[in-house]
Write a structure and sequence with these properties.
104 residues, 5 helices, Arc Repressor Mutant, subunit A
C-alpha cells in the first residue's frame, strides 16, 4: 500500500487554505467540519494544514475578519475613518463607537 504523494512545497499558504475552509464551512457548516475535512478538500495532510494555521478557530476568525473588512469598506468607503481591525469594528458596532471614531 502506498501513500498519496505529498503536496508540492509552497503550493498552499494561509490565504489559499482560508478559501478552501470558507468553501467547506459553507457546504458542511462550521461545527460539522473537522480538520480532516479541510485537509482532504485542500489535498494535503492535516499536519501540513496545521503548518499554516493553528486550527479551524483561526480560520473562522480570519474568514469573519475578511468578510467584515469587506462590509465596512463598502459602508464607510475604502479611505475614510481610522484603520480598525474588522473584529474591533464588529465589537464596537452595537454601540456605534466606530462611527464616532472613539476607541472606548
Amino acid at each position: 500500500m502506498t501513500s498519496p504523494a505529498p503536496a508540492r512545497p509552497g503550493r498552499y499558504d494561509a490565504e489559499s487554505l482560508l478559501a478552501v475552509a470558507a468553501q467547506v464551512f459553507t457546504e458542511r457548516g462550521y461545527d460539522a467540519t473537522g480538520m480532516e475535512h479541510l485537509a482532504k478538500a485542500a489535498g494535503i495532510t492535516k499536519s501540513s494544514f496545521y503548518h499554516h494555521v493553528s486550527g479551524k478557530e483561526e480560520l473562522l476568525r480570519r474568514s469573519l475578519d475578511r468578510a467584515l473588512d469587506t462590509l465596512f469598506a463598502v459602508l464607510e468607503g475604502a479611505d475614510s475613518g481610522p484603520r480598525w481591525s474588522a473584529w474591533s469594528r464588529y465589537c464596537a458596532a452595537p454601540c456605534g463607537c466606530w462611527r464616532r471614531n472613539c476607541r472606548t
